[in-house]
Amino acid sequence: MFASRKFPREGLQHRTTARRALWLALAATLAVGTLPVTARAATNDNNVEWNGLFHDQGPLFDNHVEPTSAQAVTLTFRTFKGDITSATIKYYDSADSAFHTVAMSWSSNDATGTFDYWKGTIPASASEKYYRFKITDGTATAWYNAAGISSSEPSSGDFFIIPGFTTPAWMKNGVMYQIFPDRFYNGSTANDVTNGQYTYSGCATEKHAWGSSVFANVSGCNTAVFFGGDLAGIDQKLGYIKNTVGANILYLNPIFLSPSNHKYDTEDYMTVDPAFGSNSTLQTLSADIHSTSNGPKGYLVLDGVFNHTGDTHKWFDRYNWWTSITGAYESQSSPTYGYYTFQSWPNTYSGFFGYSSMPKLDYGASGSAVRNAIYGSASSVVQTYLKSPYSIDGWRLDAAEYIDAGGNGGKDATNHQIMAEMRSAVKSVNANADILGEFWGNAGPWTTNGTEWDGAMNYDGFTQPVSEWITGQDYGGGSASIPASQFDSWLHGTRANYPTNVQQVMSNFLSSHDITRFGNRAGGDIWKTYLALIFQMTYVGTPTIYYGDEYGMQGGADPDNRRTFDWTVGTSTNSAVALTGKLTAIRNAYPALRTGSFMSLLTDDTNKLYVYGRFDATNRIAVALNNDSTSHTVNVPVWQLSMTNGSTVTDLLSGTHYTVQNGVVSVSVNGHYGAILAQ
Predict the structure, then answer these.
(1) Torsion angle of alpha carbons 539, 502, 6, 450, nearest 10°?
(2) What three-state secondary structure class fits 334?
(3) CA dist., res. 358 & res. 308, Å (int)
(4) pLDDT at residue number 30
(5) Is the N or C terminus of the chain more exposed, i.e. has fewer CB atoms within 10 Å?
(6) Does residue 10 sit within a domain?
């Protein structure tokens, strides 16, 4: 009953459920002018006023988002003052596979006297639970859960309670910066790959000048192009990352020994690729990231390519490069023969998406040699880098959905078993380490049981809808445009897929190494990058900047999305970089933007406006976004955030002060820009 929590989709963006229609209707009622302040009086009239209903698992509405098994969870629900006759929590307990109800009682009013707050408590226990609310006004009933409001009882989309499940606080509160190491900065020319240094898969290495074309001189050899970026270069630019951009989490694409520039075809997990430096260089970089001498304390996440190895890996050794071990391709008597799945040895075997250069690992049964080598033993890859002297803070799991036994592409039940074992291994070394899975759709199967990933790369709930709303293209560069109301509906539906503490650590990026650059999709319009950055830094989740996105770097499909960083514009004198730094500082200053509630306030499809609130016990913040090419005056309904008439709000971007009048703040917002109104 609770397995399916995702709205149906047609193609990449269309949602067709009745619930979506309800939310679009609700969004329409939030347009200022349709509900003037004098019309907000509510009575017991057998009609539940949907516009006054609100609950999420922000700190004002859930006293334990990450409860222990011994902590009861007290929930708060908001209604219009005097509007309802009763409120009830209905929750499903996995311990007895049954529903239970908790009567809620009136607690208090808000500061404006507009709203009532009702409270109820779900008893403590170790079992996972799912809850919804039944709101009654005489003969009328409304149901409310994470998926939205409905007149009939929903069958999915409830809020989660998962006792004992926590996600890293530093990920919730941080800003991540993703680097493709060969293309960021050349810190040491001594380790540069030279022309013709070696040949792999028929391609000789090519050393290109910084800033030149990423395409190889020889057709089909793009992965053999090197520019000289390395770990020393990243280390030398930590001041830029930490202080100018304001990011404190570094996520590196693969850095281990590999013949390609992308390193997703690992040759040796225990050796940093010489083109990037050495294992000692990694130790130094990690220490400097964690240091506070060059900016705020930072965190390091490495890319774990554990679904497959390269065909040059010593376990496989297709080209007889290794003498220390006989690989699976060389002999069926190899000690690592069982690490892979051969249909007909040696030339027919399971590969990642059929690529023979990336043979899939066969994880076998629990306790197998592969599981022990990757994560299960103290000397495993996963555990080694989490421990001193590397002390990394987390793993991003590449192609994690495909990891399995038998080379079946992740389609058997062992995938979840492996992920659960990997989580146990990671947390046994560092309970605060992060596990970030790569999945391009609804990652709920890995994030809603509290035993696998902490979060996922948020293609589905951030990258795609942001691209379609702002640029009119999907993340692949194809034509796809949605209005503000559908943008809001999409965001709401994808948030509902996850527990709140998972939402807060989802990686929200505009671009990645696998898709076209946002700047490319935006047609080079830097104002669209401004708008996207404002949303990225004020939305739920961990903002993740793919190197260069802070200045609107352009680039098409792979490998063009992996251009070299332009250090002539990577400076605080660049307007987009300066805005990025300002936005990260704002995010760091206001916990409400990181772990506060999220409330949709207004969608205006005609004028391309979207307004939402982020709030906690300390601050109330309204964010107004204008996706039109011209400026608009936006009447922000701050009464929904309980901002009192006569109070002052400040636009954190412009510094302009405004006064709340009749529950509204009127603000002029430039085209493809925004306002962050805080009090």
Answers:
(1) 180
(2) coil
(3) 6
(4) 39
(5) N
(6) no
Residue 16 is predicted with a pLDDT of 31
pTM score, whole prediction: 0.94
For residues 115 and 104, the answer to whether their CB atoms sit within 8 Å is no
Residue entry with tokens 């347009």 = 31
167 within some domain: no
**364 & 450 share domain:** yes
Identity of residue 674: G
Mean pLDDT split into 10-residue runs, the chain, 679 residues:
28 33 40 40 89 98 98 98 98 98 98 97 98 98 98 97 98 98 98 98 97 98 98 98 98 98 98 98 98 98 98 98 96 98 97 95 96 98 98 98 89 92 98 98 97 98 98 97 98 98 98 98 98 98 98 98 98 98 98 98 98 98 98 98 98 98 98 98
Residues 360/350, Cβ–Cβ less than 8 Å: yes
**Domain boundaries, position 570:** 172-309+356-589
Q: Name the token pair of 384.
A: 């080694």
Q: Which residues contact 347 (CB under 8 A, 6 or more apart)?
A: none
Whole-angstrom distance, CA of residue 462 vs CA of residue 191: 38
Q: Give residue 602's region: left, alpha or beta (phi > 0; psi -120 to 50).
A: beta
Query: Measured between alpha carbons, how far apart are the two ends of the chain, in Å?
Result: 42
Q: What is the DSSP string of 74-129?
A: EEEEEEETT--SEEEEEEEETTTTEEEEEE-EEEEE-TTS-EEEEEEEEPP-SS-E
Q: Are residues 180 and 305 in the same domain?
A: yes
Tokens of 472: 């009119």
What is the sign, positive or negative, of the torsion defined by CA atoms of 146, 11, 512, 272?
positive
Q: Is-contact 190 263, C-beta < 8 A?
A: no
Residue with tokens 């038998």, as numbered in its chain: 406
Same domain, 320 and 408: no
Query: Residue 233: which H helix or E strand, with range?
Result: helix 231-236
151 and 259 together in one domain: no
Per-residue HEC secondary structure of 176-187 comes to EEEECHHHCCCC
Give CA–CA dist 418/413, Å, rounded.
9
* Model pLDDT, residue 409: 81
What pLDDT, on a 0 to 100 scale, did the predictor assign at position 41? 57
Alpha carbon distance 394, 435 (integer Å): 6
d(CA 600, CA 27): 8
pLDDT of residue 42: 78
Number of domains into which the chain is organized: 4
Contact 159, 127 (CB under 8 A): no
* Bond before 346 cis per omega within 30 degrees: yes
438/512 same-domain check:
yes
Question: Mutual orientation of helices 526-538 and 464-471 as an angle, nearest 10°?
Answer: 140
Q: For residues 229 and 153, state if they share a domain.
A: no
Phi-psi region of 576 (alpha: psi -120 to 50; beta: other; left: phi over 0): alpha
Cα separation, 42 vs 115, whole angstroms: 10
- Residues whose CB is less than 8 angstroms from the CB of residue 579 and which lie 6 or more positions away in sequence, other chains included: 530, 533, 534
What is the set of active-site residues?
398, 438
Distance of CA 91 to the CA centre of its chain: 28
From residue 296, alpha-carbon distances to 238, 247, 432 in Å are 10, 9, 18
Rounded to 5 degrees, what angle do the CA atoms 257, 388, 513 make?
Answer: 40
pLDDT at position 40:
55
For 396, which DSSP code? E
Residue 478 CB coordination number (10 Å) = 12
**The amino acid at 513:** H
